[in-house]
Amino acid sequence: TYQTFAMKSDNAIYYRSTNEIIATGHVVFTDSMAHIDADEAHYNVESGKGWFSNGKGFFHTTARLRPHVMASPNPFFVQAERVERLDQDTYTVDHGRLSSCRPEEKNWSLSAGHAKVLVGDKIISHNTLLRVMKMPLVYSPVMVTSIAPRPRQTGFLMPTVGNSSQYGFVFGDGFFWAINPSADLLLGVEDYTSRGIKRSARLRANPTANSELTVEYYGINDRGRELSKGQFLEASGNSVRATGSSANVGYGFRGVLDVDYVPSLAFRQTWSSSFLQAVSAEASQTGFLTKNFGAYSINAYASRYQDFLCAAGVLVSNGVRTNIVCPPVPGSGGAVGNSITIRHF
To answer: Which of 44-48, 71-75, 101-105 shows the lowest mean pLDDT across its residues?
Structure first.
């Protein structure tokens, strides 16, 4: 035992002239940031440098996390032929496997020829193979993986690849921008070979301690689902989902915003990612401002409610576009339309 670390083993030799320990047999090394089991260890107690043969263990950060901030206190696991300790926060790994899951064989892991681990920050790995449940998925000559307690780092996401009976072959990617500690932006593009290119965006922000805003957008110019030769049914459009609140918008006013907008029920049924969204025939947008002063209050409220009557889209037949209109609602006097809209102020 020395300062902040402890080492156990079957056999150990300490060289006073060099301050080096050579330990063999069931070596267990622990300090405030790491726990490593190994067959053999060479460690210098003065410099804090050393290496471990056939090392297996985990790293974790001792950083204090702030409330209301997304964080991961989970340790990061490593198994390698050689693990070298450069200092308390820096390790290198040769011919090893790294993962935030345990056991990594049933989740995801990185197999790397060489990697540098910055504890509580990131992993820089070379000749890296991403595996999920032991299956190799993506190879990269260089890969940077965040293992920070607050893992927000600007960069490209892992690409998405798949196949859909409705959309065709699907390929896409996204870019995440950590604007500042209180805001981030996610931009994405997906190519549906049978329908079109989908664009998406998500903005999250906490401008002040008592305000928050989330805006999600996606849209597509749909080439349509083929009904017969030369005839397609389109469901193009743009969708917006936004929620926000602020204890002080300005001049002492409190504000709340809740927006759910889709252009048509056909668009929602075609492109929604969940069953509950797809079957909802209603969309509403609401916002209000309020201020209390003394015995008085002033309030402003606006809303738009829309109830879709049918999943009507656009019919394209031999290049001619026709908007499909829902059948007249009984008792409406023959009124024609695809939705009922109520605006309130």
So the answer is: 71-75
Contact between 54 and 29 under an 8 Å Cβ cutoff? The reply is no
Alpha-carbon 307 to chain mean position: 32
Name the CA radius of gyration of the chain, rounded: 29
197, 203 in Cβ contact below 8 A? no
Residue type, 45: V
Is the alpha carbon torsion for 96, 97, 100, 103 positive or negative? negative
DSSP 210-251: TEEEEEEEEEE----EEEETTEEEE--EEEEEEEEEEEEEET
pLDDT (tens digit per residue) in 251-285:
999 999 999 999 999 999 999 878 888 888 999 99
Alpha helices in 272-325 (DSSP H): 275-278
Any idea how long the chain is? 345
Whether residue 57 contacts residue 85, with contact meaning beta carbons closer than 8 Å, is answered with no
Q: Which residues have C-beta within 8 Å of that of residue 232, sequence separation ≥ 6?
A: 223, 224, 225, 226, 315, 316, 317
Locate 41 and state its tokens.
Answer: 């260890």
Neighbours of 271 (CB within 10 A): 23
C-alpha 272/C-alpha 265 separation (Å) is: 10
Query: Which of 166, 189, 317, 338 shows the shortest CA–CA distance to 266?
Result: 338
The residue type found at 322 is: T
The pLDDT, as a whole number, for residue 106 is: 62
Question: Terminus-to-terminus CA distance in the chain, angstroms?
Answer: 72
Q: CA-to-CA distance for 260 and 115, rounded, in angstroms? A: 45
**Strand intervals (E) in 264-329:** 282-293, 296-308, 314-317, 320-323
Among the listed residues 94, 137, 270, the one whose alpha carbon sits nearest the alpha carbon of residue 192: 270
